[in-house]
């Protein structure tokens, strides 16, 4: 097996036990952090390690692991922004499909299990191919900064 050297992930591993990367205490660094929108009870942020170009997350401000403990108002607003997100990914990024999901708990695959969040992953015909299967490499064929700007602009029109 080949190994990919990815030193930029060191911050993620070092902070994993100490702080929650989703508990953003200020809005000063929103662009640097990839925040695409801020609503009343939740926000959207680009995934730093996307499965496909345009993969982003919708996260409640409230630090909560269990979705059943979220107030209905928070859950409803998150769900509304999931709908907006699907619409935007299909309209602006021309996604042919969208995977929507939550990994609830570490055993379910959650990398950040203590703070629940939705993933929205745009999909296209042929977006997985032999490179991933044989070479165990993922290729990102779009400029992620350009995608960030598109998503931020579209969500601004929804707020």
Describe this structure in words.
The protein is of the alpha+beta class and 159 residues long. It contains 5 helices and 5 strands. It has a 5-stranded antiparallel beta sheet with strand order 1-2-3-5-4. A hairpin with a 3-residue loop joins strand 1 and strand 2. Helix 3 crosses helix 5. The radius of gyration is 16 Å and the shape is globular. The termini are far apart. The mean pLDDT is 84.
Total number of helices: 5
> How would the global form be characterised?
globular
Q: Mean of the pLDDT scores?
A: 84
Please estimate the helix content: 25-40%
Low-confidence stretches: none
Number of strands: 5
Structural class: alpha+beta
Q: Numbering strands along the chain, what is their spatial order in the largest sheet?
A: 1-2-3-5-4
Beta-strand share of residues: 15-25%
Rg computed from alpha carbons, rounded to a whole number of angstroms: 16 Å
What is the string of helix and strand elements? HHEEEHEEHH
Major beta sheet, specifics? 5 strands, antiparallel
First-to-last CA distance:
46 Å
Q: Oligomeric state of the chains?
A: single chain
């Amino acid at each position: 097996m080949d190994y990919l050297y990815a030193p930029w992930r060191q911050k993620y591993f070092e902070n994993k036990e100490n702080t929650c990367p989703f508990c953003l205490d200020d809005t000063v660094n929103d662009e640097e952090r990839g925040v695409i929108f801020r609503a009343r009870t939740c926000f959207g942020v680009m995934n730093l390690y996307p499965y496909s170009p345009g993969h982003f997350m919708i996260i409640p401000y409230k630090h909560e692991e269990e979705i059943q403990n979220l107030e209905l108002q928070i859950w409803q607003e998150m769900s509304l922004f999931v709908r907006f997100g699907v619409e935007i990914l299909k309209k602006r990024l021309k996604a042919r499909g969208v995977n929507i999901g939550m990994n609830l708990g570490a055993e379910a695959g959650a990398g950040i299990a203590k703070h629940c969040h939705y993933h929205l992953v745009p999909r296209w015909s042929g977006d997985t191919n032999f490179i991933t299967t044989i070479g165990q490499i993922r290729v990102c064929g779009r400029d992620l900064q350009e995608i960030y700007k598109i998503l931020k602009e579209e969500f601004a029109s929804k707020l």
